[in-house]
Amino acid sequence: MSKPLKQIHLAAHFPGVNNTTVWSDPAAGSHIEFASFAHFARTAERAKFDFLFLAEGLRLREQGGQIYDLDVVGRPDTFTVLAALAAVTDRLGLTGTINSTFNEPYEVARQFASLDHLSGGRSAWNVVTSWDAFTGENFRRGGFLPQEERYARAKEFLATAHELFDSWHGDEIVADPVTGTFLRDAKAGAFVHQGPQFDIHGRFDVPRSPQGRPVIFQAGDSEEGREFAAAGADAIFSRYASWDDGRAFYDDVKKRLAKYGRGKDQLLILPAATFVLGDTDAEAEELAGQVRRQQVSGATAIKHLEFVWNRDLSSYDPEGPLPDVDPDTGEDHIARGRAQVRMYRDRLATAREWRELAAAHHWSIRDLVIHTGNRQTFVGSPATVARTINEFVQGDVSDGFILVPHITPGGLDPFADKVVPLLQEQGVFRTDYEGTTLRDHLGLAHPDEADQRRVAS
Amino acid sequence: MSSNPSAHLHLAVALDGAGWHPAAWREAVSRPRELFTAGYWADLVTEAERGLLDFVTFEDGLGLQSSHPFAPDERTDQVRGRLDAVLTAARVAPLTRHIGLVPTVVATHTEPFHISKAIATLDYVSSGRAGVRVRVDARPDEAAHFGRRTVAHIDPDDLPAARETVTELFEEAADYVEVVRRLWDSWEDDAEIRDVATGRFIDRGKLHYIDFEGRHFHVKGPSITPRPPQGQPPVSALAHDTVPYRLVARQADIGYVTPRDADEARSIVAEIRAGQETAGRAGEPLHVFGDLVVLLDQDAAAARARLDRLDELAGEPYTGDAPVFTGTAAQLADRLQEFAAAGLTGFRLRPAVAGHDLPAVTRDLVPELQRRGAFRRAYEADTLRGLLGLARPANRYAATV
C-alpha cells in the first residue's frame, strides 16, 4: 500500500530587504505602509496559508563604508506590525524573527505571550542569533558575543523564555467577584533562572497564552543550529529548496529527532522558495529571465562581485568583462550587516571559477551575477508549479514552503488565485482552516500535551 | 453658541485593567475574565473614540502590579497580569480611525532602538495616531527580571538617597527620549527615492547616524524604520515632583500632573514653564494635563456611595497618586474648567471602573463640555499631533535651505 499523501504547509514571507525584491517594477508598492502588510496578510489568509513570516535586521547594511542603497531599505518593528495584522486577519499564523542577542528574555517572552493572547493563539517566533559588534552599536547593552557563544546564548535565551511562558499554567485566574479572588495562586508566574547568560528571578506578568508558548522556528544551518532545532524547535526555516539539497537536509535533521525523544512530525522543514508563474511553462521561463534582470541591475552586479572580490570595483563596467585583479583575501571589509558574505570563504577559487564561466559563455559581469545568483525555485505554469511543489513535499524535500514573492504587496496574489486551487484539488492542501491556532494549522500539539508525550515515550 | 477651538480642553483616558480602583474588577459591568483578550481592549478604545477623545493611554510595567510602590506584593484579590502596552495599542489601531494611541514604555530596562522603531511602527499602523508615555522603573524586583543592573532600594526614610536614585533614573530617561527622538529623525521624509535610472532605492545622504554618546549608553543609528508619519509622535510623562517636571520640560510634548486644587495646578504649571525656558524650549507647545481618577454618576451621592462600596470590597480606602473625583458630569466639567483657568491644557481621566466610568465620560461629560463650547464636536484632524494642535516638526537633520 502506498503511504498516505502528506498535507502541504504553505507560508508567505513579506518581501525582504535584498535583491530578490524588485522595487523598480511599476507594480511594486510601499514596503512600510500598513496597507501593504494588510494586503499581503489578507491574500495569505484568503489562500488558507499556515502563516505569514517577517524577517528582521537591526542595523542597515553597509558596503564600502556607506549605507547600501540598491535594495529596499527600511522595515517596521516586527512585534508591532504583527499585532496590528492580528486585527485584520482571523486565522493566519504570525511569525516574527526576533534576535536573541540584542534582547532580554523577560521582555521578549512578554511580547510573544501578549501577541499570542492578542491574536487568539497565532504567534510564532523565529529565533535568530547574531554576534556582530556592528549591530551592537545600536544597543545600550552594546557589545556582542564571541561567535562560538551565540548558540549558547540562543539556547539559554530560549530555555529561559520557556521557563517564563511555563511560569503560568493557565488555571490561575479565577476572577470571582463574589469571593474577591482574582488569582488562585499568590505566586503565579514565579520563576528563577540562574545560568551563564542569564541570572534572573521574580514573577512573569503575562498569564498563560492560548498556545502555551509561541511556535518556535529556527533558521540556522550549522551543525549546532541543526542540533538546536532538533532539540526543541517546532519548525525550521531552511534555505534548501532544491531536490537533492532539500532531501539531504530533511533526512539529516529528521534523523536527529529520535535522540531527543521526538517524533518526525514534531519538527517541520519549511524552506524559503521563490516562484514565477506564466500561462505556459515557456512564458514563465521568459518572465523568470526578465525578473532576474530586474533583480540584478548593473549597479547591483558590481556590488555582488565586491562580496567576492572584497574590494571596491566601482570603476568597472557591469556590461564588461570580469576584473583581472584578484580578490583581496584579507579581512572582510566591504560589506557589513549581511549574512551572504560568509558564503564565499575561498575568494580566489570562486574568482577563478567565475572567470572560467564568464569566458566560456561570453558573459559580462551582470550576466555572470544573474546566472550564478539564485534562480527562482519554482518556474512554470500554475499546473507545473503545483505539481512540482507536491512532488517535492511527497518526496521529502520538505514539509512545505515559505514563499517569497518578488513584488510587494501583490506578488502573492497570482499564487493564491492559480496554484492553491490546484493543490486543493489534489487533496494535499486545506480548503479551509480546521483549527484556530497556528499549532492547529501545523499539526503541532499544545506544549502541555507534547511534554506528556515526551515523558511517556 | 459658537465654540472656539482655542478654548477647547483636551481629554484623554488612561486605561488599565478593569479600571483604576483595585476592586473595579468585581463590579457587574466589568469583564475580568476578558482582560487578556483583544476584544476587551478594542471595546474600550472604540468607546473612547465614540466620545471624540484625543487619545487613550495604556498602562504598563515590567512586573506584576503591586499595591506597594517599590516592592511586589502577593495579593490575590486584585487584578494581576498585563499585556504589553505597545502590542495592545497596535492591535486596536486598525479598528479605530481618529483616536490617539499612547502606550507606556519603561525607559529603565528597555532598548531605545527597539522602542523608537516600535512607536514609529505604531504610527504607521495607525496612520499617524501614535504617541508614547515614558516612565522609569525604581523597583528592585523588576530590575531582577532583567539581571543587567541593580536599582537601589528607595527608602522613604532616607530622602537624599532616594532623591539621588530617582534623579539618576530620570536623567537616564531624558537621554533615552533623546535617542528615541533622534532615531525618528534619522531618515528624512524624502529619503526613499526609487530612482530606477541609477538603481538607488534611497538617497543615503538623507539617512543620518545619530551618534548619541551619553553617560548611560551610546547608540549609532540610523533607525531601521523610516521617519514615522507624524515625524515625531508625541512623547508624554507622568510627573509628581521637580525631578520628573524637568523631564517633562526638557523632552515631553505632554506632561501629566496631579494637582489637588487650582492653586497647586498654577504652581506646577509655572514650574514646568520655567523648566521649559531653562531647557531652551520656551516657544514650543507643551501640554500640561491634569490627572484625575473619576467616578461619575447621575447624582453626586450615588458616585460617593459607589466609591464607598468599592472601598469596602477592597478592604481599605482607595488612595493613589492622583486626586479622586466623585460627582456628576456637570460637577466634573466645572472642576476641569476651573483647573484649565489655572493653566492646565487638558486632562487625563482615569476611570475608577472602566466599564462604568469610561462610558460616563464619553456619554455624559463630553456632551456637557460640548454644550459649554469647551470640547470638539467632531474630530478635526487625522493625526494625534493634529488633535493636540502640534505642527508636524521639521527634521533636525534636514539641511535648511
Structure description:
The complex is a heterodimer of chains A (457) and B (401). By secondary structure, chain A is α/β, with parallel strands linked by helices. Chain A has helices at 34-46, 78-88, 105-118, 133-136, 150-165, 223-232, 243-255, 281-295, 298-309, 347-361, 365-372, 382-394, 413-425, 438-442, 447-456, and strands spanning 9-13, 51-54, 62-63, 66-67, 93-99, 123-128, 173-176, 181-183, 190-194, 199-203, 215-218, 235-238, 268-273, 275-277, 335-336, 378-380, 400-403. Chain A folds into 2 domains: 9-279 and 376-456, TIM Barrel (Alpha-Beta Barrel); 297-372, no CATH class. The longest helix of chain A has 16 residues, at 150-165. Chain B has a domain at 9-81 and 95-137 and 235-307 and 314-387: Alpha-Beta Barrel (TIM Barrel). The interface between A and B is large, with 75 and 82 residues. Chain B: This is LLM class flavin-dependent oxidoreductase.
**Topology, number of strands of chain B:** 13
Cα-based radius of gyration of chain B, to the nearest Å: 21 Å
Number of helices of chain B: 11
The CATH topology of the largest domain in chain A is: TIM Barrel
Choose one word for the global shape of chain A.
Answer: globular
Can you summarize the main beta sheet of chain A? 8 strands, parallel, barrel
Annotated CATH homologous superfamily of the largest domain in chain A:
Luciferase-like domain
Gyration radius of chain A, to the nearest Å? 23 Å
- Major sheet attributes of chain B: 8 strands, parallel, barrel
User: How widely separated are the two ends of chain A?
Assistant: 28 Å
Domain module count of chain A: 2
Q: What portion of residues of chain B is helical?
A: 25-40%
Q: Which shape of chain B, going by the Cα principal axes?
A: globular
Name the structural class of chain B. Answer: alpha/beta
Low-confidence stretches of chain A: none
Q: For this structure, what is the CATH class of the largest domain in chain A?
A: Alpha Beta
Strand proportion of chain B, as a percent range, falls in: 5-15%
CATH architecture of the domain at 9-81 and 95-137 and 235-307 and 314-387 in chain B: Alpha-Beta Barrel
Spatial strand order of the main sheet of chain B? 1-2-3-4-9-10-11-13
Pfam family, one (chain B): Bac_luciferase
Domain Luciferase-like (chain B): 36-310
Keywords (chain B): Flavoprotein, FMN, Monooxygenase, Oxidoreductase
Family (chain B): Belongs to the NtaA/SnaA/DszA monooxygenase family.
